[in-house]
Design a protein that fits this description.
By secondary structure, this protein is of the alpha/beta class. The chain contains 7 helices and 7 strands. The chain has helices spanning 5-25, 52-62, 81-87, 97-112, 139-147, 159-162, 198-220; strands at residues 26-31, 41-45, 67-72, 91-93, 116-118, 151-157, 176-182. The protein has a 7-stranded mixed β-sheet with strand order 1-7-6-2-5-3-4, sandwiched between helices. α5 (139-147) packs across α7.
Length: 258
């Protein structure tokens, strides 16, 4: 899937709006960007606030890589936003098995053309009370192992102070800093050639989540929990907005989920 003139032009317009705004809203510090592969790859970031996709998209676009997200199919029905997503060749994801398979096929085409596909392995904003990465879904691992595609872990921290998880307004003062670190591609060699069964995909996903968590621990200069947060063990839904006691349940709209 080569970038069309329409896609490039739309991305340029979006970037012309978003980049200056984000530069005004917060300072930024990017580390490890030299580790971004020259060819196609999967970017696997942590997910703690609704503006995460703009943070990662900003970094990739600034490094000459058009960002492509796996985004919830419902987002493509939102006025204006849906048009932008379609025009910039983002990938709609449906929860059905057939829909997920179609999404992964399109993602493979993007990577084969040297593009970057962004997948949030957690599948939604983390439910961990301290915003550590939670248990991941297997979509990124499956795509990587099926296509021999490198998975680049990315961790970021600070954007949640500007727009908190499920927040309703931005907190611009005092000025915050968004820090992003890019890691070396995850070593998935132990899983190559094995049947893509539950054990293989779970093991590869754990390796990806470990790499993301290690990067985030370095950014935060803190130790992550000994056990990764598992929504199922906490009687929480795998998808949708996490609702604490006393909160009204509303729909969650976030790009890049699978």
């Amino acid at each position: 899937m080569k970038e069309s003139a329409k896609s490039r032009a739309t991305l340029a317009v979006v970037a012309a709006i978003v980049r200056p705004l984000f530069n005004l809203m917060m300072d930024k510090k990017w580390e490890g960007t030299e580790k971004l592969p020259a060819g196609g790859f999967i970017a696997a970031p942590n997910h703690c606030t609704e503006i995460d996709p703009l943070i990662i998209g900003h970094l990739l676009y600034n490094h000459k890589r058009a960002p492509h997200f796996l985004a919830k199919a419902g987002l493509f029905k939102v006025p204006v936003l849906g048009w932008v997503l379609r025009a910039t060749k983002q990938v709609p994801v449906e929860r059905s098995t057939a829909g997920a398979n179609r999404s992964l096929q399109v993602a493979q085409e993007i990577v084969a053309e040297g593009g970057a596909i962004i997948i949030y392995p957690e599948g939604t904003l983390t439910r961990d009370p301290d915003l550590w990465p939670m248990k991941g879904h297997t979509g990124a691992a499956r795509l990587a192992l099926e296509g021999g595609i490198p998975v680049v872990p990315i961790a970021h921290w600070g954007a949640h102070e500007v727009f908190p998880r499920y927040g309703k307004r931005f907190h611009l003062f005092p000025r915050k800093k968004s820090r992003v670190v890019v890691g070396e591609p995850v070593d998935l060699s132990a899983f190559i050639g094995r049947p893509l069964d539950k054990a293989t995909l779970t093991g590869a996903t754990e390796a990806i989540m470990d790499a993301i968590t290690t990067l985030l621990a370095e950014l935060r200069d803190e130790q992550p929990p000994a056990e990764r947060w598992d929504p199922a063990k906490q009687q929480q839904a795998k998808h949708g907005r996490f609702v604490e006691r006393g909160q009204q349940k509303t729909g969650e709209r976030t790009a890049g989920d699978l």
